[in-house]
Write a structure and sequence with these properties.
Blueprint lengths: L1 H32 L2 H21 L3 H8 L13 H30 L5 H4 L5 H20 L4 H23 L5 H25 L14 H35 L2 H15 L5 H18 L2 H28 L1 H7 L8 H16 L3 H6 L4 H26 L1 H27 L6 H17 L8 H22 L4 H10 L8
Helix pairs in contact: 1-7, 1-11, 2-4, 2-6, 2-9, 2-10, 3-6, 3-9, 4-6, 6-8, 7-8, 9-10, 9-16, 9-17, 10-14, 11-12, 12-14, 12-18, 12-19, 13-19, 14-17, 16-17, 18-19
Length: 494
Amino acid sequence: MGEIQRQSIKGTIYSYIGVVLGFITTALLYPFILTEDEVGVTKLLLSYSVLAAQFAGLGFNGVTVRLFPYFRDKSTGNKGFLYLALIIFGIGIIIGLGGLLLLQPWIISQGAEKSAFFAQFFSLIYPLVVFQLLFATLDNYYTQLYKSTFSFFLREVFQRVSIIAAIAAMYFNIIDFNGFIYAFVFIVCFPTILLIWQIKRDGLLEINPTLKHIDKALWKEIIVVSGYSIMTSFTGVVILNIDSIMLSTMAGIGATGIYAINYFFGVMIQVPARPMIKISNAVISDAWKKNDIETIKNVYRKSTITQFVIGSILLILLLINIDSIYQYLPKVYSEGRYVLILIAIASWIEMITGVSKSVLGTSDKYMIQTLAMIGLAILVVLTNYIFIPIYGLNGAALASFISITAFNAFRYFYIWYQFKMQPLGIVHFKILILTLSLYLFSFLLPMTNNYLIDVPYRSFVIFALFMFISFYMRISDDINNFIKNNIIFKNKKY
């Protein structure tokens, strides 16, 4: 767990800085400087570009996660792996952009009545697809070399600071909304250039133009894994973005903007899990190759505890401050109150399952996760189709809640059945009791009429109590060790 802890902590620090910056962007600036339609445009640009980029990736990122241990060899430039990855990238971009070009008239026509404003910016999706796919390709390669934190800095800090600067320029009438959108696209694309520079600086941009190290058996495995990964990655992106896309066509781009702001608050709970899952992919993949089941069980169990603790703290803080959030935001965004609640609870449930995605996705049963995700994508589309006409943007959130909860339950029970790994125990029950108790206790705290005072005061009390109780109950070894070594007992023996 040493490498996971080290990089997870650094990644989490960047992630939390990103949360603060994202909060400034999404909660403090977007609702007051951009209209709901303009927020919707930025959300749809990212949704469509991520969807197309995942399809264009041809499933190779799954190959990187699962099969890189078979290429790992510094003396041969990792047996030409990066060269192969870039070849696949080139082929995928040609296929992906060609397909997007053919589908463009149909996509625009689907939202012609309620999202016509978006059509004039559709061409900006093309550069977003190219740069986002290249970033993902290089980032996955870099992560397998146990270098996962720089990309977090680029996405969570550099990119968000740059977007804030662009919004400020719009606020001071230096640029108009069209100028902001072009700046937004450039800001999303530019981190790819910086990532290439950093990989080269580390001496890891090893493009060995040979594939002679790949034998027939490995080629077969690459093709099989790619096939399943295409379905996994594409359906994964469908799951994450189809709600916004369907909302824009069924309820209008304004509803998409309101949904995006509330969705942001709900998924903040998952932020700490991202660096842990990212580095765990490499560690667990190596462990499967060595058949080191104990390491996998240990990583899996500890991840559920750590993520459950952090997720529970964030869920309580979000729920006790929900009225203050809507006191601050423009009134129109309160229409998405149940979006925030449902997405937050769904994110919390996903945190409880720890790195189950890595455990199943890097095992020899990875195809089960693919098939389950296809089923999940179908469920997401069906539930959105059913609930959006009835409940509008809250219906999209309900659809996501049902689908995400069902999928995480399936993955948890499948790992338990297939690999006999069951990470939950009495400690998780203690965390749940502590969470419910402190949430109920929050109602006893006196409230002020000023949210600028109320939010930090109530948040500090609940956070301090949660950490104090969990520390002395020794709920999480990882969190306790971090507190001992970095906060309370730094440079002292405990």
